[in-house]
Every structure is written in C-alpha cells, then in structure tokens.
Amino acid sequence: MEGRCTVETWAELGISSSPTCLVNFGTDVFLCTGSDEVYAFNTQQRKLTAVLQFPGPVNDLVESYDKQVLFVPCRSGVYSLNLQFLLSRFQSSQASSCPVELKIPSEFLVVREERVLSLIHVGSILLILSQTDTSWLFSLYKTTKQTPTSKYEILSSISLPHVAQEDNELKGYVTRRPVLVCVYSDNTRPPYLSSTSSKEAKTLNQFHLEPVLFRNLFGIDSALVKSPVILCGLSDGRLCFLPLLLPGLQLRVLHHLEQPVVFVGASVVMKTSPAHAQCLVVVGELGRVVVIKREKSVAEGKYNTVSITEGCLPGPVVCGCVDKHNLYFSTGSDLFLLELSDGSQGSESQHRNEETCGALKSHTSLNVCRVMSLAEPVCGIAGEVELLGVSVRGQLQRITLPARTEVGCVVNDLLPAIGDVCERASALETSIKSKKQILVHLNHVLNIGILLIANQNSENNLPEEEKPIRCHAILNWNRLLQKESLNLTCVLNNSSPYILQQGWTLNLDVCPLSTSVSTGGESHSTTFSLPFCNLHPGQTIKVSLPLAIAEDKSFPVMVNCSLIFSLAGLLGEEQLLSSCISLPLNTLLVDWLHVLQVDCPTASHRTTISQYSSGTKDILKTFLSSQHNRCSGRGPEEVEGVLKQKEEQYSANVHVSLNLLRDTQVLKSSHIDLSHSISLLDWLLFEEHGGVKMGHQWDKTTYSSAVVRAQASNGDKIKLIARKVNVGKECLEREESPSILEVQVEGKSIEAVRGLHHAVLNRLLTLLQKASRTSASARGVYRLGLRSALHQAEHVLKQIQQSRILKAESFSASPRQMTRSVTYQELKGNCLL
Amino acid sequence: MYHHISLLDRWIQENNEFVNKWQQQQREGDSSNPGLNQTSLRWCSSKFTKLLIKIQGISPLPEHAQLELSVVYNSCVCATAQSQFTEAELLLRRSTERVLQMTDDEPPSLDPLVFWRTVLKSVKSKTFSSCILHLLCLQWAIWLASCQLKMIEAFQEDLRSLYETLCGGHGDGRKIEHKGKASDNILLLADPRQLVQLLQVCTLIAKGAEMLSEGQSSEALSCLQTASSLSAPRTLIAYTHHLSGCCLAHMSRPQMALQCYRKALETDARCVCALYQSMLIYRQLENTQAEIQALHLLYSTLMLPPVTELALPSAFLLSPSLLLGSQSLNSLLSVPTALSVLHNLAQKCVLHGRLSEGVEHYLDLLAILHSEEQQGCVATSQVPADVPHLPKVPELYLEAAAALLMSRRPADCMVLCEEVISTTQDVLPEKWVLEIEEQNESVTRDVNDRMAVLLWTGTASLLQGHCYTHLKDWKQAVIHYTRCINLLVRVCLKREGFQSQMTSSDAVVKKGTRLCILQKLKGLSLAGRGISFTQTDQLKEALRDLQLSLQASPEGVGAGLWLGEVLWRLGRTQEAAACWEKAWSVNKQSSAEGLPLYLQEPQSGPLLDSVELQHRIQELTPT
Fold first, then answer.
1. Dist CA A365 CA A334 (whole Å)
2. At residue B170, does pLDDT exceed 70?
3. Can you quote a single GO CC term (chain A) (predicted)?
4. A596: helix, coil or strand?
C-alpha cells in the first residue's frame, strides 16, 4: 500500500542490551551490538559476510572522514581497520556461504587509551573523547604516515570539567556516549583533505553547514581558517564546539540542552546551495529538540543572527539520523519523522516563513518500533528513503519510506485505509462465520439424512412409532358455512438428536390409494409444502391442511410425508433452486374409518341393532360375509334417489378372535362382553391407525351398546356394530373357548360399506403384524388369510370406485351391472381367517 | 602466632607483587601517555587501599607496624600522584595515630607540627621509626605540592634532620635496617631517599620563586644558589639558573641575568623559559637584532618535536611538575605559544625594516593556521595571563595584508582583504552602539564580537583603498575608502549612564581601546579619500575629508600635510603653512606605538616632499 513504511529484516544478530552502532560503507554495513563481535553485512548479497572479533566489548563504530577506515574503540584502545583490506579478506573466502571470522590482532591498535567514550576522524586527526573522574578529556591524535596500521601520536589535549551535579538524577546519563560530529563551513574542504577524498563521501558525522550560519555560530576565526569544527553533545546536556585549526584549542559551549544529547546533525538542503545544510539540529534524550537556523527576517537595524528554536518530541529518544530534509528518530516504541525544511524552496513564501519560523512542525509516526540505532538514510531515485536500523532484538532492518512529500498526507490516507481494511476484515470474518454455520447446518442435514435413510433401509425392523422423525395426523371435521370439511392436522415430531434448522420443508403428498383407470393411471395427488424453521429435538410442529371438502374425496388417502432440504435457501443462489435433498418420512393412510363422522349416541340409535347371521363354519376363521340383503341390481336407484336408500342395506362383517385382541392389548380393561365390543369399536374408530387418529374422542361410557352410527365422508349413513358371536360346534371340539368378536358394517351405500370393511381389515392386519412381532409365529396363518382377504377387499374396493366413477360419468348400465355382479361374486367367495 | 606471621608474609607478598607489577607496567608502556599512566595509577591505588583495609582490620600489632606503615606509604604515594592531597593527608594522620596507640602515648594534638613532633619523639627508639620518617617525607611532599611553604618553613629543622638521616649514613634508603626476617624486603613504590633529595631541591626552588615574587630578590638568589649546588635532575638545575637570572633581572642587572639564562640553557637546551626571558631583556635593552634572533631561536626550539618528560630514575611517581605547582613559579616559567612567538617575530621584523623576512614569517603563520600542524605546538599547560596572546585570526590576516602592502605587493594584500571581507560581510551589524566606560571595556564573550567584526571589515576596506592608492587608481581608492567610512559611521558612541549620543571629540581616547581604533580608522580612511580627491582635483571634497580626518584623529601626519597642500592649492597659503607646521610637530613615533600594523600610516601613497614644503613656507614668510 502506498504511503506506508516497509520493514525488511535482513539479519538476526541476537539480542543486544546495550546501545548498538551501525556504520554504512556503501554496500557493506558494519554493526556492533555491544558484544565483542562486529558484524559485516553485505546489502547486495543480503548476507553476513564477516564477523570481526575484538578483545573486548565494542559499543561504537566510527568511520573515517573519507570512508576508508573503520575505527573501533575497544577496551584497550582504538583499532583502525582499513576497509579495502577488510573487503579483500572477505572476498578471498567468499566461496563459502558462512561468514568469515576474523580475529583482530593487536597490531591494528593505533591508539592506546582506555575509557574511550567517543571519537571522530577528521583529516589526519583523530579526536578522542574520554572521561576522567572530574572532567571530559578531548585528546587530539595525529598520524603522519598514511598506512592504516600506523600509530597515532598525541598532539594535544583539552579538558572540560564536569558540571557539578548535586542531584544524582543525571548521574545515570553519564554512561551515554557523547555525540561527536564535524562541521565544515565551505564547499571546498580544507586543502589537506582534498587530496585524499576524490569522491564526495557522505558520512554520518560530517556535515557541511551554510557559511553564514557557520560564521554566526563558530566565529569569523574558524571561518577564515576554514577550520573544521567538532561539535560535541555531552551527556550532561552541553553542546560544545571545538574549532580544530584555531590556535590554542578553545572549547566553548554553544547551547545547553539540560538533558543528555543523543543526536547532533545538520539538515535542510536547499536547491540553491546543494552542498550546505541550512540548519543544525540537536536532539536530547528526553525529547528536547533544538533547531538552529539563520534568522531569516532581517529587520531594520538588525544584523544576521541565528534563531534557536526549541521543541519537544516524544521521548526517550534512542537514536536519530537526518537526511536532506528530515530528522528521523526512534523512541524504541516508534520511529518518527520530523520535517525540518520550511517546505519553501524559493522566496515566494518568505512571508509565510516569518510567521511559522518560531515553531517546529509536528512529527509524524512511521509505525516502526524497536529501532535502536540508525545508519544514514539513502534517498532513492523515486524519492523514497531507505533507512538501515538495528532493532532491540539485534535485527538488521531496512526501513523503506515512501516518497517524502507524501509522508505528511500519508497519515490522512492511512486512516480511511485502516477503515477499509477493518471493513474488509469484518466482512471476511462474517462470511467465514456464515460459511461455518452453513457447514454446521449441512452437517446437521447430512446427519438427519443418514438417520432417515438408515431407518428406511431397516424399515422392517423399526416400527413406525419408533422412528426418530415421523409424522402423525389427527383428523377433524369442520363445519364452516354449511359445508363440512375435513382437516388433517399433521404433526411432525422430531425425536432425533438433531435440530431441524431453516431450509427444511415438510412436504405432504396427498394422493388416493387407488388410482382410477379412467384417468390413465395418473394420481390426483396434491402436494403441500410447509417450510419451517428450527425444530429442536423433542419438539413438534402442527400443520393443518384441508384434506377434502365433503364428497370431494375418495378414500382411503395416502399422505406421503417427506422432508425436503433446499440448498437454495442455504446458499441463496438461484442456480441451486433445483438442488434439494428429499428424505421420505413415513406414510399416513387416511381410510374410511378415519373420516367417519360419528353421530352422537341417542336412544333411538342405540335400539337399532341389526342382526346378522353368521354363515361361517370354521371357528378359527373370521368369516366375512357380505350379504346383499336386497336386490343386488338396485344399485342405480340407490344413487339416484335418497329416499330409496332406506330400502337398500348392505352389510359386511369381520370376525376377530378375542384372544388376538386381548393379546394385542386392544381390549384393555374389562371382561364384560359388551365392553369388549365397545372397546373394539373404540379401538377401531379412535385409536391411531396408520399414523392417523380421529380428532374427537368418543366417550366410551355414553355408549351402552357397541353400536356406532356414523356418517361416511360421502354423507352416507353407516352403522358399525361389534358383538360377540359364537362360532359353530367345530370350534368347541378343538378348543375350549373360541370367543369371537364380530364387527359388522351396515350401510345403504355399498361404497361406504366396502370402504369401511377394507379399513377394518387393514387395521386388523396391522394389528396382526404387530402381534406377530411380539408373539409366536403360530399366528402367521391368520395373517396370511387376513392379508389375502384384505387384498381381495382392496381389489373389490377399487372396482367399486371404478364403477362409481363410471356411473358418475353416465356410462351405460350394462357393463356396470356386470362389474358389480363380478364384484359380488368375488366378495362372496372371499373368506377370511 | 604462626597464623599471624603467615598472614604477615602473605600481605608482604601481596604488597611486593603490586609494586613489581607497577614497575613492570612503567617499563613496558610508554610513559608519554598520561592516560595510560593514570589508569595504572588508579589500579595501583585501589589495590593498596584494599590491602590496607585488610591489614588495619585487626588491632595494631608491633610486628605488623612496619608492613602497615609501608603500605600506608605506598597508598599515599598513589594518592599524592593523583593530586588527591587531602585524602593522602588524612590517611597519613589516621595511620600514624593507629601506630601511636601501641606506644600508649596521649593522643597527639590536631596541629600538624605538634603532631609530627610528638610522633617523632615517641617512635624514636622503635623498629619502625624509619617508616615514620618515610611518612614524614610524604607529608613534606604534600605540603610542597599544595604550596604550604609556611608549614615547611616552620618544620624546617626537623625536615633538615630528616634529609640528613635519609641521605646520610645508609647507602640505600630502600633497605632500612630490619630485624625481623619476614620484613626484610618490603618494597616501596618510590625510593624515600630520592624523594627527599627531590623534595629538598624543589622546596628551595619554590621558596626562591616565592621570595622573588615578593620582591626579596637577593634572598631568593642565595636560596637558589644553594639549590643549584645540590644533586638534582638537569631540568631542575636549569630552573635554578633561570630563576637566578630572573632575580638578577629584577635587581636591574640585565647582563648578569643574561649570563644566568645562558647557564640555564647550557644545562638544559630545552629550557625555553630562559630563552624567552633573555628575549625580553633584549627587548628591554632595545637590542632589536638580538631580540629578533632570540625570537627566532625560541620559535625553532618550540617547533622541535616534543620530547618525552625527562626520564627520572624508574619513572618517579612524584614528578617535579607535581611538586612545583605554585602560581608564582608558573608565571616565571611560562612561555608563549609557538604561533605567538612567530607572530611576534614577524611583527618585529616588519616594524624594524626587515620587511621581506617579516612578510615570510606572516605567510608562514597563515599557512600554519590553515594546516593542522599547529596543534602540536600548542602548549598543553594553560598559558598565564601575562604572556601575550595571539591576536584573532582576522587581525593576523590584516597585519599580514599590511605587511604585504608595505613590501609593495598590493595584489596579495587585496586577496587577503577580500578574504576577510567576504567572511565578515554576513555578520556585520547594521548599527552598533559603543558604550564608553571609564574603566576597561568589557570584552564580550560572544563568538562574533560584532564591533570587532565591523572594525575588521572597515580595516580591510581601508587597506584595499591603500592598495588602489598605491596603484594610483584613484576612483577605486575613493570607492573603498567610502566603504570603510560608511561602515564606521554605523557605530554610535554612548557614554555609560548617559542617554544622549556624543561626538567622538568629547571622548577621551585611550590607547588600544576600541574607540581609539575606531577614531584612527576614521582618520585614515577620510585622509585616504581626501588625498584621492586631491589627486583628481576635487579640492572641495578633499578639503572636507581631510578636515574631518584631522578632527577624528589629530595626530594624522599625512592628513595634516595634505590638508596644507589642499589649502595651498586653494590659495589659503597662511593656513597651509600653519597646517604643515602642526603636522611636523606631531611625534610620529609615539602615535604609531601600540597601534596594530594595519593602522600605521601608509607609506606607499603619494608623498609630499617636506623639503619642498619647507621651501614654500620660507618663500611665504619673507614677504
């Protein structure tokens, strides 16, 4: 991103506690971290090229004025290392990838002096600052020969007494190294320098200062002799200067910072005089910064003076460096930039300068932390600035700043950028979260799917009621606006351990059991889709749906329940509309019995009990005999006229062994015969069968007899009678108590009678299946017989329905007659167990 | 008992170890490095202090006394060598008191004289009496180094007997008669016998110098004569001769003084102070040639590579420079810096007609200033106030420029002036108020003394004007003189306490002050412009300028003569004659004295022939 610092770690040099030092020789960087070792790092190859071992800890590295020699103050004195020599040594063993280890012998020791605090090299003079108990000692050493290992001889020395410190507060600072820099006045260096330095080598501690400022600060004398001036920032806060070439070595105090001086440098280079810095900047440890400039506004009667601007920076300042326009300083927790130039390159903004002269610009954070030491910055072609730094942990870092003019604006740019990033991050986070949720969701879905499919496969093993997710229904008749309508209240019960979350749809597919031939085998199925959300384990959902308006539906009706999961709902993609998972649940069967509208028991109804003579022989068999009491050929009249219905009565009966009923807990309570019958009817009518239950309860106690009068779905009156019958003598021969219950269905509509008959048979079959599961397989015989009877009954039912439809469609009577006769034959021949 | 002796042995061993190590370090390291010396001295000091703490940790025992006192001696030597006199003195006193506890004498009094006398009396017969004597030597050294000559005076008798005891019978002071076998060889850092000899000489020298500064020259002389007969290092003997010379000079016997100085130089060729003092005597005798010669010698001696401190036997810890720290002696031994001598030499040469030689010296001086060679010839010791300081660099430039102009090298002169002007022009004040105080002018501590800068720039312009006059480019000359005048009028004079400004004529112009220089400059520049105007026949302007010039600086000879000339040309012959007469009457010598070279009247401009003027006057009078 534009406008942001990039930090590149080049090398790790171990943790350093003491102040580090960094010196940059073009592509070679030397650095020390307070240990005995000095590291050489090549910035082009980006690798550690050498490790120089010294006899004592090294805290400072100083380059010579011409960048040819590296001075290393150590315990016993100052070592001088020629750069060319060192580099050749590095190159000779370049082949190996690991850095060269060089032990520095004592012949490189050029000055024997202990307690060297700081030093600086100017021309052939080496100025060493050391400390005695009472004073600072500036010693000038000089070499005559140009060989790198030639010893330096002392020329003279000057001492500066310590400032008496009453408080111990400043004592801790004494350990801080004084800062030494050299300032030149003129573009052309003194003649003794020009011979040796062919190219303009910029060093960290040598500055060219604008001549007028130089004269104002250091006097005419220094300017006349073109003396280099050593500026020394002491740890007691004094900023002293020492003109090197003036007779009598006079050390004077330029300024007092009242806190240890950390950095002294010169900056602000104008285009008009590219070689000279316009201002001198001094930074104290606690953040005081002093900018010394030439007074710009020369008012009437005044002369050129210097303006000293003091400012406050965030402390504690650890290190600093300057480039042509800016001061960079690190507090350890952040790296800052302070723009020193006024920003005016010409005279057009002279007026503005006068106004803003008194104050410093505000510093800008570069968001780089832990920088302990900095080398001089390198300005790139595009205006970007590269800084080399050493971090607290001893990492050599390259810090690249964006093009300089932008830096001020950068902060403003950064804020929205940070906002953007924040937004993006939160968006990503939510999308990840939602994806996770979807995955969790899908996982649930899959779990549910597996559960249901597994159940399907093992359907035989698991009874309907024990399925983890199943539907059951309650039927209700509603009377609304003189119209009777049948409502199916479907209850979805989730007893699985999974939650049914959003996206699930309960699909109820309602279709008649028997499809008519006339419609070409098509089923008249109606599908109800009921989306729901969050069905927790153990919860249920109730759905009411109209099953049929009276007389509109043919029964029995199958209700296929299935759960559908739509991925579209989950992913919100339109392309996925079609993709969904369909999991079939159980099937509900709504038969004639279910839809019976039981009349309230009245006295009149109670008396009418039709007698029925059994025609069956076998004891163990339930005999179904459907008698055509009246003329069988009267069918058409029955439909045509309601009045005539009274005359025509159809009946069908089913015999059930009492034992069977007892075994299967149908008859729960009493031993009274009558109550047996009532219980059977109750069971048939109001217990749950095929997952469907009648809506209203029948109060058993109100029924004195086991006769139920009801209205079938098509409006026909129907009578259900349950009674105990005695089977013939054959029974007695075989077993002791062949008690049998008979269920008789009587009605004027053959359709209704058949439907009910079928329904009763179906229920008994289910009961038998259940019983076989629990009891021995001996009753398999019953079951077989019952089943075949059921099949036949079904078949007959279909035929009846068919015929009814045919009739409705006004077909000729003859084939119907024929069919009916066939039916009846079949029915006659039907015998049940 | 066994335990004690073994402890004693260990301590002796430890002590000797330190002494040996120190001596070894001295042999190895170059003694020229003061830093290194100081370091090892500090190391030594701390070692001995620690050892002493151990020894004094147990109650004083007679068997231990000798060792203890020796360690005290060593420790004190270290402290004294580091100029920690009070610490050393305290240590001496405490340790001695501790030893005295063994003799059961009453606690000695606080007065050091009484104290030492008591001590000497009570230990007379003891085995460790010699050790006490050593400590007394140190006390002497401390008194001497801290310039307590009165104390030494008071204790003179005892010190003399001490000197005789130590230097008398026994051959080597280091091996004092020891009875115990263990204490046979306790090494000491400094040989007490050498020390006492050195102390004797140094005391006499210091005493002599003190007497001399108090004006008791003859007493001083006898004292120094005694000193010169003693055996002592060569430098010290040279000092005695030199000081004797100083005494004689004070007693107005310059020739005898010169003899003494010669003796000093013969003893020690490096005795520059003798050379300097003889130069001063030549100056006093107005023997200019000899003076220049002496300056020459002095300069070349000073420019010799510095020799390491004279090698005293086994790098004596307590050096004469440490012991001879008195102010009066320092002022007698002080010598100006080499650059200052060179400047003096150049100035003398120019002023006394050896122009080319003088110019060369000036150029040498400037060259040295630009090189870094000069740092070597700066005396490291602080220069006392009475030794002339080198003038400021711009002044040296201007003097050199003036010298160049005198030797008729106007082009070179102009280069130097241009240099000064270009450097100073940014720093010039627009206006300056010069407060005239009755006493000395306060010398501002400002790096850029604005007033001085203004004067320098003005002078540079003046010299440029002189150069153009020399080249007879009158127009340019007028321009530069005008520049100078414009600069000078920026200065307003103000008497302290008075609000109003004053005219220059009101002020009493003292020689050498800023005001004097300012007035002189005004006079010279106005005169120069006036003369230039005369050459271009702008007589009215010339008349005004010359009159103003004389107002500013009445002793201007050239201005007076040329004013007469202008008046003559204007036909005011009587006035002209009066002017000339007045101009001739001015004492040329006295007016030039004390003025820098560049403020001397130019000798290179158009000149008026005095004989011809005399002739004109004579023509005038008879009629």
1. 7
2. no
3. Fanconi anaemia nuclear complex
4. coil
**Domains of chain A by range and CATH?**
169-382 (no CATH), 464-590 (2.60.40.10), 597-829 (no CATH)
Cβ proximity of A677 and A741 under 8 Å: yes
pLDDT tens figures, B357-391: 999 999 998 888 887 665 544 444 444 445 567 78
Give me the DSSP letters along B194-228.
HHHHHHHHHHHHHHHHHHHHTT-HHHHHHHHHHHH
From its phi and psi, is residue A402 left (phi > 0), alpha (psi between -120 and 50) or beta? beta
Task: Name the residue in chain B with its Cα closest to that of A123.
Answer: B372
What pLDDT score does B373 carry? 61
Asked if B382 reaches chain A (Cβ–Cβ under 8 Å), the answer is: no
Closest CA relative to residue A407, chosen from A449, A365, A441: A365
The beta-carbon neighbor of A224 closest among B34, B397, B430 is B397
Residues of A in contact with B34 (CB under 8 A): 157
| Chain B contact set for A130 (CB, 8 A) | 35
Strands (E), A186-251: 206-208, 229-233, 238-243
Q: Give the other-Cβ count within 10 Å of A444's Cβ.
A: 18
Q: How far apart are CA A666 and CA A656, in angstroms?
A: 11
- Is the separation of the CB atoms in A721 and A707 below 8 Å? yes
Signed CA dihedral, A232, A236, A238, A239: sign only: positive
Give A351-410 pLDDT, tens digit per residue.
444 444 456 777 888 888 888 888 777 776 666 778 888 888 778 888 887 765 555 556
The shortest C-alpha distance from A243 to chain B (Å) reads: 11
- CATH superfamily entry for domain B391-620: Tetratricopeptide repeat domain (1.25.40.10)
For chain B, say whether A811 makes contact (Cβ under 8 Å): no
A251-310: per-residue pLDDT in tens?
888 888 888 888 888 887 776 666 778 888 999 888 889 988 887 655 544 556 788 888
Cβ distance A300 to B430 less than 8 Å, yes or no, reads yes
Give me the residue label for tokens 């062949």: A738
pLDDT at B361: 93
- Residues in A touching B428 (Cβ below 8 Å): 303
The candidate with the shortest Cα–Cα distance to A126, out of A79, A176, A57, is: A79
Interface predicted TM-score (ipTM)? 0.76
**Among A485, A484, A481, CA closest to A544:** A485
Percent of residues, chain B, with pLDDT higher than 70: 82
**Residue A112 in contact with partner chain B when CB distance is under 8 A:** yes
- What pLDDT is recorded for position A702? 54
**Residue among A303, A304, A305, A306 with most chain B CBs within 10 A, to mutate:** A303
Q: pTM of the prediction?
A: 0.64
> Partners of A12 in the beta sheet?
A395
| Mean pLDDT (chain B, rounded) | 80
DSSP class per residue in A312-373: E--S---EEEE-SSEEEEE-SS-EEEEE-S-S--SSTTHHHHHHHTTSPPPPEE-----EEE
Q: How far is B594 from chain A (nearest CA, A)?
A: 23
Helix, strand, coil shares of chain A, percent, nearest 5, are 30, 35, 40
User: Which of A153, A283, A295, A164 lies closest to A231, judged by CA?
Assistant: A283
Paired tokens of A83: 């750069």
- A217 touches B: beta carbon within 8 Å: yes
Q: Where are the domains of chain B?
A: 2-174, 391-620
Residue B549 has pLDDT above 70, yes or no: yes
Cβ contact (<8 Å) for A225 and B419?
no
- Residue B42 CB-density burial (10 A; 0-12 exposed, 13-18 middle, 19+ buried): middle
> Are the Cβ atoms of B372 and A245 closer than 8 angstroms?
yes
